[in-house]
Design a protein that fits this description.
The structure holds 2 protein chains of 2 kinds. Chain A is of the alpha/beta class. Chain A contains 13 helices and 7 strands. Chain A has 2 domains: 3-113, no CATH class; 126-242, Rossmann fold (3-Layer(aba) Sandwich). Chain B is α/β, with parallel strands linked by helices. In chain B, the strands form 2 sheets. A 6-stranded parallel beta sheet of chain B has the order 1-10-7-4-2-3, with helices on both faces. In chain B, strands 8-5-6-9 form a 4-stranded mixed beta sheet. In chain B, helix 16 packs parallel to helix 18. The mean pLDDT of chain B is 94. Classes of the chains: A alpha/beta, B alpha/beta. The interface between A and B is large, with 75 and 70 residues. Chain B: One of its GO terms (biological process) is lactate metabolic process.
């Protein structure tokens, strides 16, 4: 199995430790991932801002970079959703179709391709899970409160299997954090308020470590945690899973 | 002409932190009631699929169903009028009122008449128009537009209502007891009902097969108005049609559960023919709906049954209030309907969303609201209604992100700049909106790609 690692643009620049954790975690699970150096971005920041046309060269570049791999694994459901959903604007060549079908979120890859349902190790902390909307409602990696009261999902299951871990039960299990790409600056007041409310739900219910599968939500929430000097640690799920000691 | 953006109005709304919390929690409570009602119906998703299919089908042959509806209504003795736009609609209403020599009109809830700005038009013509829905009556006294399509006065607290009734109904100053306030409104409205000469209603569903219209209320005010007044005028958009009476049950099961978490609205009133000696009119209004029907990407927005679930679930709506949208229908559904009416004026509404998708998931007729928001963004951009600085920045970003070399260089430059520049500059809130509520990420020494390049590579 030829697997490529796509490290989202902002993760590459600001959260290299998340890329490193993803790379090392895949290695521990028996997958030697390649990192095609030509990679840049999936184009979502432009397209969500209304500049889909300007994003087309980025889409093409993404397909060129990853077309020769069986899977392109990404530690961010949001980018995956964008590739799967919005690369429909490209001519649907076999390469484009292949890349759309095989670009996959890290946790989805672990759960459904590697078929690993449990990881050995313990993590004796109270962990709050932030569901990214694109991972949850877009890629169906977790149940939605709009449909069912049952709180379930891929990452929730992986984490719940760890020794000593306690998962936070939030008042609102899956409300959006308010990041929203350029929304975070174009609607700064609402975005900040949504993030504040999300963080407060975790504080109120005792979260010590705030985690999730999407670093963009976490970047926003971490910015608020640090501004308000709250005693919360923010980590991407790959960092937790890669750092496990059994 | 320049317009206020959604963001600027939302920012103003947010200045009152406590009130924003209250608004958010009040609507979240309604969303939770909806969830409970939905979870209790095992076939709820099946009902959504059915409702969506019925509406898709109806829209696909709307012309035929409209003609069928008109013929059936006429057979019932109803006078049917066609209005191309708001002005025609309002003129028809006035003509009907004048023909009876009437001056007193009672009106039950109708978002279409809000859209047509009927009230100010009639009042200017010397007609007294009284909104008889409690929430509508409160905001009518305050001269405010509704902030929600189902809960028009949801932006007001009981203290606000007490102050309004003190001023307009002479209730005791400082009265905040909801039951006493409601009783005061009830007494006031009773007199208006008894004096009403023409009753206006909206329409929730129009049944092509029978020519009848169905109005759903919780207060029974539509019934009371129509039963007492000699003339009933029902105003409906062309998209209100469903083919058969037997289709109605699908929608009544979905509507109240989605709207307020009730199993059904308290009153589901069917109006088919006028009582002997009385008049019944139906006005069928286009007002740009045909234009929306002609847009394949946005056609599905006409499936909306006006339940308001997308507002209650929207994290942005709950924290910015209905008035921040400055359109008759606020919230996610309003943000995909309004650009059809005036793209420039409403150009910021498709951006008043994180595209979280919750609106789409609660929509009882499965409108792909967040997908349409995304698509309207592309059209706003193509029409050059994006703020100039944003457009230039995005174009630059597009070129940067298509080139690995430029991306690598600018990334390393940016991180270094972030490390070296003083905090006051990087976190200046005038130039950096990110820093208003948040810290920037701490720039690492190395990017991932720099780290990776230093790793020993396995033999391939």
């Amino acid at each position: 199995m030829k697997v490529a690692l796509f490290v989202p643009c902002y993760v590459d620049q600001f959260y290299p430790q998340v890329g490193i954790a993803t790379y090392q975690l895949l290695g521990k699970l028996g997958v030697q991932a390649a990192f095609p150096a030509a990679q840049t971005c999936c184009g979502q920041p432009l397209a969500n801002s209304g500049c889909e046309r300007e994003a087309l060269p980025i889409y093409k570049h993404f397909v060129d970079t990853f077309q020769d791999y069986d899977y392109t694994v990404v530690p961010s459901g949001s980018c995956v959703y964008h590739v799967q959903k919005h690369f429909d604007k490209l001519e649907q060549t076999p390469a484009v179709q292949h890349v759309r079908a095989t670009t996959i979120d890290l946790i989805d890859f672990i759960t459904n391709i590697l078929e690993i349902k449990e990881l050995p190790g313990s993590y004796p902390h109270k962990v709050g899970l932030h569901l990214s909307c694109h991972g949850q409602r877009g890629l169906h990696q977790a149940n939605e409160s709009e449909m069912t009261p049952v709180r379930d999902g891929q990452l929730r299951r992986l984490l719940a299997g760890l020794g000593g871990i306690e998962l936070t039960e939030l008042d609102r299990n899956d409300e959006c954090c308010g990041f929203g790409g350029t929304f975070c600056v174009s609607e700064a007041a609402i975005s900040g308020r949504m993030g504040h409310d999300r963080v407060q739900d975790h504080v109120r219910n005792g979260t010590q470590v705030l985690t999730g599968g999407d670093m963009s939500c976490l970047m926003h929430l971490q910015g608020i945690v640090r501004r308000q000097k709250l005693p919360l640690q923010v980590l991407h799920a790959a960092e937790i899973l890669n750092g496990l000691t059994s | 002409m320049s317009y206020l953006t959604h963001a600027s109005r939302a920012e103003a709304f947010n200045l009152d932190h406590e009130r924003t919390s209250w608004h958010d929690e009040t609507l979240w409570f309604v969303r939770q009631k909806r969830d409970k009602a939905v979870y209790a119906v095992p076939e709820f998703q099946e009902l959504r699929n059915l409702a969506s299919a019925i509406k898709d089908h109806t829209l696909s042959r709307l012309d035929e169903y409209l003609a069928q509806f008109e013929a059936a209504a006429q057979t019932n003795g109803v006078r049917v009028h066609w209005a191309a736009d708001a002005a025609e609609h309002n003129a028809i209403v006035l003509d009907i009122i004048r023909a009876r020599g009437a001056t007193r009109v009672v009106k039950s809830k109708s978002m279409l008449t809000e859209e047509c700005h009927l009230n100010p038009y009639l009042i200017k013509e010397g007609i007294e128009v009284i909104d008889t829905d409690l929430g509508e009556r409160i905001i009518q006294m305050r001269d405010e537009p509704p902030s929600h399509i189902v809960l028009p006065a949801i932006h007001l607290k009981k203290e606000d209502v007490g102050a309004t009734f003190f001023k307009h109904l002479g209730t005791a100053e400082g009265l905040t007891d909801p039951q006493q306030l409601t009783e005061a409104a009830r007494q006031h409205l009773r007199a208006k009902f008894l004096a009403g000469e023409v009753a206006l209603t909206g329409v929730n569903f129009a049944i092509a097969e029978t020519g009848s219209v169905v109005v759903c209320t919780n207060e029974g005010n539509a019934d009371l108005g129509v039963s007492l007044a000699p003339v009933h005028v029902a105003s409906m958009g062309i998209e209100k049609l469903i083919p058969r009476l037997s289709d109605l049950g699908v929608f009544t099961r979905l509507l109240a559960r989605s709207a307020t978490g009730q199993p059904v609205t308290t009153y589901t009133s069917h109006y088919t023919k006028p009582m002997p000696g009385r008049e019944m009119h139906i006005i069928i209004v286009d007002n740009e709906r045909t234009q929306q029907l002609g847009r394949p990407d946005f056609r599905a927005s006409l499936k909306c049954i006006r339940c308001g679930a997308c507002m209650n679930t929207c994290p942005v709506y709950r924290r910015s209030g209905g008035h921040s949208y400055d359109f008759t229908v606020p919230g996610p559904i309003g943000s995909i309907l309004s650009p059809n009416i005036d793209l420039k004026k409403h150009s910021t509404l498709p951006f008043a969303s994180t595209l979280c998708g919750s609106c789409t998931d609660v929509c009882p007729v499965k409108i792909d609201i967040h997908v349409q928001l995304y698509k309207w963004r592309q059209i706003v951009s193509e029409a050059n209604h994006l703020p100039t600085a944003k457009k230039i920045g995005l174009k630059f970003m597009g070129r940067l992100l298509a080139s690995p070399t430029a991306f690598k260089l600018s990334g390393s430059f940016g991180r270094r700049a972030l490390r070296l520049l003083p905090y006051g500059l990087t976190h200046n809130q005038t130039v950096n909106a990110w820093a208003i509520a948040r810290e920037l990420p701490e720039p690492p020494q190395q990017s991932f790609r720099e780290w990776f390049a230093q790793q020993p590579q396995p033999a391939t």
